Amino acid sequence: MTSRTDLLSALSGIVGERYVLTTAEDTAPYATDWKRSTTGVPACVVRPASTAQVAAIVRLCGDSGISIVPQGGNTGLAAGAIPDTTGSQVVLSLNRMQTIRSLDPIGMTVEVEAGAILQTVREKAASMDRMLPIAIAAEGSATVGGVIATNAGGLNVLRYGMTRDITLGLEVVLADGSVSNGLRHLRKDNAGYDWKQWFIGSEGTLGIVTAAVLRLVSVPRYSVTALLSVSSLEAAISLFGHAQQEIGEALSAFELISANSLDLVSRHAHLKPPITAGDWFILLEGASSLSGLRDAAEGVLAGGFESGWVIDGVVAESEAQARQLWALREHVTEAEARDGPSLKHDISVSLTHLREFLDDAEAALVDAAPGAGLNIFGHLGDGNLHYNVLFRPDHDQKAINRIVHDAVIKHGGSISAEHGLGQYRVDEWLRLAPESDLRLASTLKTALDPSGLLNPGKILPFSLLHTKAIRGVN
Amino acid sequence: MTSRTDLLSALSGIVGERYVLTTAEDTAPYATDWKRSTTGVPACVVRPASTAQVAAIVRLCGDSGISIVPQGGNTGLAAGAIPDTTGSQVVLSLNRMQTIRSLDPIGMTVEVEAGAILQTVREKAASMDRMLPIAIAAEGSATVGGVIATNAGGLNVLRYGMTRDITLGLEVVLADGSVSNGLRHLRKDNAGYDWKQWFIGSEGTLGIVTAAVLRLVSVPRYSVTALLSVSSLEAAISLFGHAQQEIGEALSAFELISANSLDLVSRHAHLKPPITAGDWFILLEGASSLSGLRDAAEGVLAGGFESGWVIDGVVAESEAQARQLWALREHVTEAEARDGPSLKHDISVSLTHLREFLDDAEAALVDAAPGAGLNIFGHLGDGNLHYNVLFRPDHDQKAINRIVHDAVIKHGGSISAEHGLGQYRVDEWLRLAPESDLRLASTLKTALDPSGLLNPGKILPFSLLHTKAIRGVN
Q1: Mean pLDDT of all residues belonging to chain B
Q2: In this complex, is the C-beta atom of A153 within 8 Å of any C-beta atom belonging to chain B?
Q3: Which residue intervals define the domain FAD-binding PCMH-type in the entry (chains A, B) (predicted)?
Q4: Fewest beta carbons within 10 Å, which of A20, A376, B40, B178?
């Protein structure tokens, strides 16, 4: 084991002294998560400028038995990029590696370094009449490496899939400091195991993504946005089926927002929906290069009225109106924060079981946390809801988390749909995951990071790795 | 090591005597591949009826040190499901496990056993007005497990992605005989490592897929098919960019067929294109729920004429005409077989480098195999070509394979786009893959199948696994 002075000196030797941050002031932006709910104590923050420097840092830390916490834009919603409080973990920030290496409008790919800001890449693509189809709220600071490490979802998963589906190639620094270059610009490649899949969504616990090739798509020529209020969740689900039939793959978003969520927006952001309320609202978006999109959207609305699913609805007449409708959805999270403390759950359940899940969870919460409020909204089209509980000081927060997650598992769902496990959900995952999932996870972690120095505590805590799971496959 | 008699007796104890095939006559259909170019000698063929039986077989073989070759519909194009000729490997056929466990038209998923025939599942989905978007020529005999094991591509990858993108959940029997159940019906699930990704496309070398959950999509209401002839590959690529702009995500196929390919079809299947020939033909298909599709397709044609890319073209006026146009494409493989022996290459190259690849490969072939013919066709939209060489008896077949694959690698492509490595391409992959790819592959194989009993010789030969690659990460 190296002394701290030796470590800092060796790191400075790799990246230059000014890129090794050590004071509390300098490291603060890297030590607290975006939601300001978790603060760690890094040994230091190191900011490499190249893949070779990342590799050298990993080798150095490996030789000294020092843990590394990779970090991108630090916009994660589960504190997966925040170190623990021991002061022994090195935060490796990719934020100097922002080069867009190439953008190929014919092959429809972009090759970027991991620290590139999502919005910058999207703008570069747009300037060449192409689109990078990853749309998340934090695009102004989130990095490519971060969205890959968490397999980020977002608003357009319904149409384009998760980040995994957009990722064509990766360059990864492995735990032994070697570099695996899989930066292929290919839509189809079945030669050998597709190892990039192992690293996508692995939260920096198996290797450090230093660059990626992402898929681009053509920019849709037409778009349509509508806000509807519906009488029930069943009506919302029926309307979704109808919309899929009418709009097909051009349906790019189908967001569910509870009446309670829009009450919060009305009270704290002073924005009101321009239509009569129901129990739920739907924000529907379509995008296509084909004419006939707007007709199809109006057909959805008409069919919804006829079937009695829709109470009221409006189709945006202009880009400005569409933005106003989206603003209602986009202010939900901020309004929730202004209202008071909340427990966030990032869950997915098949649409077929969503009603039963909501009933079970709410019934249990009424008993365990009387008076708690609910702020439920999310990507209904993906079965992904943000099920947030507005608790009171006397409520047992851990019990609330357990109730929501137990109901999710009971109905075949996932407790981590698009934000990652990070620090927030790792205990719950370990509590609820099937034994076989844990064994397989432990097998891969042990194979790729035998010393457990890459983002320890995330996904598989070190103790589990070296004790409980070392039966079975291993 | 068990005697053969003991083995057969123990297998019979698991599945019943009639499902352990031992005579040359009974095992013949399982011992030769679909192309009739590779014949193995199985110890026996065992046909389990359930996941529990598969697990018991794997445990039995594991205890006895006997290798298992999993097999689905035996329609693979690279002999990945054919045993070697030692007579020591057990073929485990999934063809009795055909149950469609559930089809959920609301949640848009289907859960099936691995031996289910693709066409049966597609028809079941169609009967409920849903579509399983995996379209391959062998759908009448290919199984769900087989398309997952090879991460099959096909005609609609452009729009819906590879089998990987359609697979939501897997049930896998691991090398130790334990069962990992990941049959989740979720579009989004980021809880822990997404281990199903490891097994998709792994050709039965890491575990045996026994069941899967696949994603369904809505059935497009409109479709359009057009055949065009173009002046050059550059024109074809420009037309593809134009079609993406005009038709967007509704573009479901963009097939390239060389004039030589259609000559073969004309000579051997007596089908002729109804338009004036160019060097290349394009078969374009769009499918959408939105009106405006046909207008957009005609716009592509008109734009193509204006730009000088298109020589001639026709848009099908009826379903029957569309089928006639597709028949030209579908007869290419059969016409090639009737013409004489050929060497098939299943390659992908970025569209940006496709011209240089074709030039390099052809120049080298003219030198090394003078008089060889070329039959080039495939999925241009994915950069995936079937680059088949019609060789003469005096040509060096191994040299031809090397020339084509060297040119592929030179231009950043893949030597295995959608058919798998199987037995045909594994040597070439080992020759050409980056050292880091081999090391990572070896790491996973060693971790999941330490005794190397699952489909040995495919992807990573046993010798490599236990010698060469055991440096580095391991």
Answers
A1: 95
A2: yes
A3: 38-219
A4: B178
- Residue B72 pLDDT greater than 70, yes or no: yes
The proportion of chain B whose per-residue pLDDT surpasses 90, expressed as a percent, equals: 94
Per DSSP, A437 falls in state: H
* H/E run at residue A461: none
- Whether A39 contacts chain B with CB within 8 A: no
Instruction: Classify residue B132: in a domain, yes or no.
Output: yes
pLDDT over 80 (residue A262): yes
A67 lies within 8 A of chain B by CB: no
Residues A68 and A104 in one domain: no
Report the Cα–Cα distance between both ends of chain A, in Å, rounded.
Answer: 28
ipTM for this model = 0.96
Which of these, A109, A68, A59, A64, lies nearest to A90 by C-alpha position? A68
Q: What residues of chain B, 364 to 403, have a C-beta less than 8 Å from chain A?
A: 379, 382-384
Long-range contacts of range B391-397, CB-CB < 8 Å, 24 or more positions apart? B391/B341, B391/B342, B391/B343, B395/B368, B395/B369, B396/B368, B396/B369, B397/B343
Query: Comparing B463 with A117, which gets the higher pLDDT?
Result: A117
Task: Specify whether A396 is located in the same domain as A439.
Answer: no
Question: What range does the domain containing A181 cover?
Answer: 100-218
What CATH number corresponds to the domain at position B309?
A: 3.30.70.2190
Domain assignment present for residue A114? The answer is yes
CA angle A336, A337, A339 (to 5 degrees): 65
Residue A473 in domain: no
Residue A473's pLDDT band, with cuts at 50, 70 and 90, is very low
According to the model, what pLDDT value does residue A462 have?
Answer: 63
Backbone angles phi, psi at B152, to 5 degrees: -60, 150
Task: Answer with the one of B309, B333, B357 that is the final residue of a domain.
Answer: B333
For the cut 80, the answer to whether the pLDDT of residue A282 exceeds it is yes
The Cα B13–Cα A397 span in angstroms is: 53
Interval A428-460: pLDDT, tens:
999 999 999 999 999 999 999 999 999 999 998
Kindly report the CATH number assigned to the domain that includes residue B360. Answer: 3.30.70.2740
**B333, B359, B386 — which closes off a domain?**
B333
- Count structural domains, chain A: 5
Residue A102 has pLDDT above 90, yes or no: yes
Choose the closest CB to B186 out of A237, A348, A436: A348
Please report whether residue B474 resides in a domain. no
